[in-house]
Input
Amino acid sequence: MSLRVLAGSAIAFAAVGLFLLLFIGLPHWYGRTGPGAPAGTAVAAAAPVAPPPTGRKIKAHLYYVADDGLRLASVEREVAYGEGALEQAREIIAAQVAPVVEPLVSAVPAGTTLRALFLTERGEAYVDLSKEVAAAHPGGTMNELLTVYTIVNALTENLPAVTSVQLLVDGKEVDTLAGHVDLRRPLTKNLTYVQDQTSGAKN
Output
């Protein structure tokens, strides 16, 4: 066999080897991540996000705007478990101010978050909410009452250790949220603005 034939054969084998490496070997090792990649081959793709831990839950009565828009409806929902009255109070308020989806309507302005929560030995809870609770408030006496008693009732109705609630905004004491409800002192539970359970609260 001539040297020219041997050289040609070597080049042919090298070309086949290169083809196998580029089009079969590399996709096998690194995965095909494009839209047409078959399932299970994307070895180099990002790992899937793990589902959030479920954790221990309790049932609590949270408050949302009733169908008539003039009262609150008590809705039983699951919230995260907190060790002790203080931690449980924080979990309840965090759940209460969290965004909701229809058919629920929150009386707490969108974007409001819990900054801090303190509980005295006398059972007075001080709930410090972010500035959105006042800055994004639509105003009006009824709207303000519903916002305030959403927070007050969520704590006093669910936690016997909490006897009253004072709202703070952005770390400061405030006279009102929108000019109507006096917030200069802790407020006790008031179910006057809560819809009677027999009249059809939202589920």
Residues 1-50 form one domain. The chain is about 30% helix and 20% strand. Confidence is low (pLDDT under 50) at residues 1-8, 10-53, 199-203.
